[in-house]
Amino acid sequence: QVQLVESGGGLVQPGGSLRLSCAASGSIFSIWAMGWYRQAPGKQRELVARITSGGSTKYADSVKGRFTISRDNAKNTVYLEMNSPKPEDTAVYYCNARTAPSVEGMDYWGKGTLVTVSS
Predict the structure, then answer these.
(1) Cα 86 to Cα 39: distance, rounded to the nearest angstrom
(2) For 72-92, how does the pLDDT look when each residue is reduced to its tens digit (9 = 90+)?
(3) 33 contacts 16 by C-beta, under 8 angstroms
């Protein structure tokens, strides 16, 4: 089992910056990748960014060049630096940990943190 706790959400102005954190505990050794997903009202949950244990990253096209995912292995923590957010980035952001890239992989989820981009 992997437990994930997010922090750092809140209200941010368009063009500002915000950093989300996700601390993992439990069976850390089983994690292949950690990432951030988001879900806006009336929309499906979508991948925002992901980083593997090998350091490879993947971003949604909508956030490339604005958001950066990073990790601190010593703290078992993953970060999402949100620069120049837009109102359309408003959503509940969920931390995810996955045990394998294949369909056999298991997903673990945090409870989510709300990010509101508004002036």
Answers:
(1) 15
(2) 989 999 999 999 999 999 999
(3) no
